[in-house]
Design goal:
three-stranded antiparallel β-sheet, 22% strand, alpha+beta, elongated
Length: 253
């Protein structure tokens, strides 16, 4: 009887060990990546905070950023979900552009890299935190709070630009003739959730050879969500193609 009990206990322990082993190995590649990415982001911010308090040494910031990139690149190999991989790629590309900004002696070039970096890195990280469980340590909570606020502005601007471009991608004009002039008009509707201060579009009139023979513009003002506005332009040139492109836009704050 004792031998039977001993055998059952050993068997139970063996099953428990196998179960524990299976549980440890059960973490998905995505979960493993998020765990490693959490460590990398927090290490980067903690290192930066320390360096900022005492002052950066030569090349220290670039070293910190490259360490983060290295951690992400290694962990990325385990990712299974396509969307998560895209976010990881955006984040890494954003950090690389941040490094390039630091290397440039040209203010405009450096500023361009910084804007591109933030547009990639900040929304990607917020998405990984909100939707994939990337963990921000308590000591870095304020840094992330500021980071998320900036990401929100970037995302709104990205959505605004996307909508403004899509709005005229399938534009159809109604034509009317008056003497040698042709008037083109259409109605545009703001079906987005964004309130625009204004949107401006450039209009090019092209002939059969593709040569631009006239220019105009379409202008929307106080273009709030749900709003419809009629816009028009006129030309005395014969057209073969009308090309409308986004010039600029401003969002109401």
């Amino acid at each position: 009887m004792k031998k039977i009990l001993k055998g059952l206990i050993i068997a139970s322990c063996a099953l428990m060990l196998v179960g524990c082993g299976a549980e440890n190995k059960g973490a998905s590649g995505d979960e493993t990546f998020i765990n490693e990415a959490s460590k990398a982001v927090n290490k980067r911010w903690s290192s930066q905070n320390s360096a900022e308090k005492r002052g950066y040494t030569e090349g220290e910031l670039e070293k910190i950023l490259n360490t983060e990139i290295s951690s992400f690149e290694k962990a990325k190999e385990k990712i299974e979900e396509k969307e998560l991989k895209n976010l990881a790629d955006d984040y890494v590309e954003g950090v690389k552009k941040q490094i390039e900004a630091g290397k440039s002696n040209d203010y405009e070039v450096a500023n361009k890299y910084i804007k591109e970096s933030e547009a990639l890195r900040k929304p990607a990280l917020v998405n990984m935190v909100d939707n994939y469980g990337l963990v921000i340590d308590k000591e870095n909570e304020q840094t992330y709070k500021d980071f998320k606020a900036q990401a929100s502005v970037i995302l709104e601007d990205t959505d605004a630009k996307k909508f403004a471009e899509e709005l005229i991608s399938k534009i159809e004009f109604k034509k009317s003739k008056e003497y040698s002039w042709t008037k083109y008009e259409t109605i545009l509707e703001n079906t987005s959730d964004i309130n625009f201060e204004n949107i401006s579009y450039n209009v090019q009139v092209k002939d059969k050879e593709g040569i631009v023979v006239d220019n105009g513009y379409l202008y929307l003002t106080n273009f709030n969500k749900g709003n419809k506005q009629k816009v028009d332009f006129s030309t005395d040139k014969e057209d073969h193609e009308i090309l409308v492109t986004l010039d600029y836009y401003n969002i109401k704050k």
